[in-house]
Amino acid sequence: MSQRRLSPVTSRSSSGLPGGEKAHPLPDAIPEESASKDTQEDALSLKQGRFSWLRLEMTRAEWDIFIASTCLKLLLFPAYRSTDFEVHRNWLAITHSLPISKWYYDTTSEWTLDYPPFFAYFEKLLSIPAYFVDARIVDLNNLNYGAWSVVAYQRATVILTELVLGAAVLKFVRGAENPAMQRIISASLFLHPGFLIVDHIHFQYNGFMFGILLWSLLMARNDRKLASGFLFAVLLNFKHIYLYIAPAYFIYLLRSYCLSPTGSLLPGRFLSLANAVILTFLASLGPFLLMGQLPQLLSRLFPFTRGLNHAYWAPNVWALITALDRVLLKFVSRGQLGSLAVNASGVASTSRGLVGDTVFAVLPTVKPIHTFAITVAFQTIYMGKLWTNTSYKSFVTALTLCGFTSYMFGWHVHEKAILLVLVPLSLLAAEDNAYFRTFMIASIAGIYSLFPLLFTPAETLIKIVYSVLWAVFVLRPIHRQVYQFPQGILAVVMDVSERLYLAGFPLLHLVVTLLPLAARRRASSQADASDNVDGTELEFLPLMLTSVYCAIGLVWAFVRLSVIYLTRKD
To answer: How far is the C-alpha of 111 from the C-alpha of 113, rounded, in Å?
Structure first.
């Protein structure tokens, strides 16, 4: 498939599009006016054209999707909510009740403010109507407040702020070379199971922030690179996890915007971009710089006392290595592999999903410097390719690989960070069969890896049925569009292996559903036993199996995408 699919949109005749569809104008194009119209109408048309990139002009099908999805989200108001719900309620109280000088010092609750200042300002804005809805929502000492007023208010703010994402995916359709396929991809993003699980049930604001990211990528697609860089700088000051993909933005904007094709610096563009970024960071960090609180703020944003793995192992390379360490420990404890030394402090460190420092029992312990070095090494390889090819498609792929690398090799990675891979990868899903297969494997493994976030019975059917329906309505039409029969024995073996892997997810779900029942039966039958083989290991086993099985798919998707990007010239 040609590179033009993801390249910036250019004007063309209707014959240049599939099915003879008429090309959409550029977002900032000004509608033509006939000479017969009066001056007032011309001025109105000019004004409308200037802001036409903001207009959505939704079709009936798009309205149907929006209304149906909103109704579903409203029905999920009473659903399970994690401790993140209280985290954000506490941040509403902090920003409403305390002066800005105390925001990053307050310890009234264990859920201290640890997001960048723009998100704190965002919480401050949300706290104003929250006070009028129910003043107890923003009471700093009203910990673990769970009245219906706070549930309805905070759930509603997630739906409303997610409109940023909805507007972005709609604009991706406008001006696309294949509007029909882009409409499927845009719908898949707005209806993504990851957002439903993490935002609308578990509770966070990822849809809002990924909306900003997609607006930034849209500006890059439309060759508005200064706006793209500015929006990404804004995003960094909302949530610092997006530092994972910052190298791709740096190389892309430097090479394609600040340098000429011959490599010489363009001072005007460089200064414009630098000023936009600096002013954004000054607006965010300025008040804390003036108060001398920057070290305290940074200590909240970057706590280095956490372990290699999160409580539930994010399915990455370290999950596989951690599982291997546990397997080797079993052999050593049975007298096999006796030549291997055992670190006593690592025996209980990684088997029960503890948040503390991870120490391996048999394998060498991984330290933060190791994860940092590996991450930088891989990202440097991708940035070298991006430097030589700054097309939009190359940028999106490199950006996805930056996020993927950080997810694979980062320190204390959260399972929710997989969205940083799945969202930009969605934009590449319909490029060709190779990209689609990578997207399909990463999406199924990545979405399933989020299932343990919802462990209550009431949400089990929701997450399964919704994810299956999403896969059917998204993966099948793209598959029909891009499928190619595998050529060669190696391609056939890969195809069969990938199909078998994906077919294993129903079996995996059956196993992780039955294991807790077996653990409870075992614990009850050995209630009076004093041996070390109790039900606690079986209790964590479903999480470990989920993490390891999903890690296999995600590592393979990472390898696939890396090979595609580095071996192709487009």
So the answer is: 7
- Note the residue count of the chain: 570
Take residue 44 and report the two structure tokens written for it. Answer: 């109105």
Helices 368-388 & 246-253 angle (0-180, nearest 10):
30
Please say whether the beta carbons of 454 and 466 come within 8 A: no
DSSP string over 306-357: S-SB-SS--SSHHHHHHHHHHHHHHHHHTTSSTTS---GGGTTTSSS--SS-
Mean pLDDT, rounded, of the chain: 86
Q: Please tell me the distance from the alpha carbon of residue 164 to that of residue 205, in angstroms, as a whole number.
A: 11
With H, G, I as helix, E, B as strand and everything else as coil, classify residue 221. Answer: helix
Span 314-352, pLDDT tens digits = 899 999 998 898 888 888 777 666 667 676 666 665 544
Give the whole-angstrom CA distance, residue 542 versus residue 515.
7
Residue-wise pLDDT tens digits, 87-121: 999 999 999 999 999 999 999 999 999 999 999 99
* Per-residue pLDDT, 540: 79
Give the pLDDT confidence score for residue 313 in this predicted structure.
83
Rounded CA separation 345/454 (Å): 31
- CB-based contact 451:546 (threshold 8 Å): yes
pLDDT at res. 334:
72
Q: Quick check: 293 pLDDT over 80?
A: yes
Distance between CA 486 and CA 567 in Å, rounded? Answer: 18
CA distance 76 to 459: 9
Residues 6+ apart with CB under 8 A from 20: 14
> Coil, strand or helix: which one is 161?
helix
Question: 269 near 228, Cβ under 8 Å?
Answer: no
Contacting residues for 340 by C-beta, under 8 A, at least 6 apart: 328, 332, 362
DSSP letters spanning 447-507: HHTTGGG--SHHHHHHHHHHHHHHHHHHHHHHHHHH-----SHHHHHHHHHHHHHHHHHHH
For residue 288, how many C-alpha atoms fall within 13 Å in the half-sphere facing its CB? 21
Question: In this structure, are residues 26 and 11 in contact, taking their beta carbons and an 8 Å threshold?
Answer: yes
Residues 524-548 have a mean pLDDT of: 69
Separation between Cα atoms, residue 316 and residue 206, nearest integer Å = 21
Which amino acid is residue 460, in one-letter code? T
pTM for the whole thing?
0.87
Q: DSSP readout, 392-440?
A: HHHHHHHHHHHHHHHHHH-SSB-GGGGHHHHHHHHTTTTS-HHHHHHHH
- Residue % of the chain over a pLDDT of 90: 69
